[in-house]
Design goal:
Number of strands of chain B: 3
Order of helices and strands of chain B: EEHEHHHH
Radius of gyration of chain A: 24 Å
Structural class of chain A: alpha+beta
Largest sheet of chain B: 2 strands, antiparallel
Number of helices of chain A: 7
Radius of gyration of chain B: 19 Å
Largest sheet of chain A: 6 strands, antiparallel
CATH architecture of the largest domain in chain A: 2-Layer Sandwich
Structural class of chain B: mainly alpha
Number of domains of chain B: 2
Strand content of chain B: 5-15%
CATH class of the largest domain in chain A: Alpha Beta
Largest interface: A-B, 68 and 55 residues
Distance between the termini of chain A: 22 Å
Strand order of the largest sheet of chain B: 1-2
Oligomer: heterodimer
Shape of chain A: elongated
Chain lengths: 255, 109
Amino acid sequence: MPATGRYLYGLIRSAEDWDFGCIGLEHDGKPSRVYTARVASVAAVVSEHGAREKLLPLRKNLEPHNRVIRKVMESATIVPMSFGHVAKCEDEVLKALRCNRDSIRAELDRVDGKVEMTLKVKWDVDNIFEYFVAADQELTAFRDQIFGRSQAPSHAEKIELGRMFEERLGKERDEQTERVVEAFLSCCSEFKVNPVKNDKGVMDVAFLVERGRQKAFEERVYEVAGTFPTQYLFDFSGPWAPFNFVDLDIQLPAA
Amino acid sequence: MELTSARVQCRPAHRASVRPGYASRQRRVSLCETLDRVLNKGAVIAGDIVISVGDVELLYVGLNLVVTSVETMRNWASGDPCPSGSKPVETKSLTVPPEESAVRARMEG
């Protein structure tokens, strides 16, 4: 009979063993029991999982991964694992903890007692191109010049207009991101600027915030949003496990 | 721990306020945010620990690359993309664009 594998949800610092209940990924037709596999003060949050079982990023698998991380967050600071890690047995998990104990500890120390808050800002306008062109004299003049003639603008001219637009957009994003990040420096310990996902995105920033300063962070969002024109839409969410601040590539010596 | 999310926009009265009608969107937003995190971020283990037998190893390596973000992919590329002892990954799974795989995860889920 093949050994039962272990699914990994994340890493915590703990001097004792934990049992988080049957809230894990499905195993043998029912939600698996989530508990800790521990080496001294470093523990991996795991549950039994077929080592050769197919594991796909489906909602039924992603949901428990996320649920476990949220549950653990209630009582400990967790360094979350990316979805899809299965060790072939518990010993392998313990070996991984032993080999990487120092780096895992350092990572846990860095995020200890902190949560991740995300702030996404976007331009709430129907047409981002029109909005920008209208706000920029040089862009307006160039557009009128190439579209105002009897013949259609050349390919090269359109490309040039597009390039100018992109440049303005990028510059505006950078300036506003700097302005916003600066306003949050006093209530976060780290921040990470992520690339925006679409044209209307102004910024996507993750902040690492002390648990106790969450309220202050939220209040700051309202304050900062109040200093921006109405076209700027602020979305914030949290607390999340520090997904954006994990910088841990766990290495294993060759067997 | 309860997840909060709110949308704030400065109203003409120059006072930031939570936008009405937001609650309905909230669930969807946090699902997308969750997917982005769980699939693209978090700690990664590279090595022989992860399922190391034959085709299953391919599944692990393939899975990670299929669901990974460009960001994570870069990490793989800069290090050893193919953990020692593992077989080469089928290129088929490497060419799925990250965006598409995330969408597929949502559709299939």
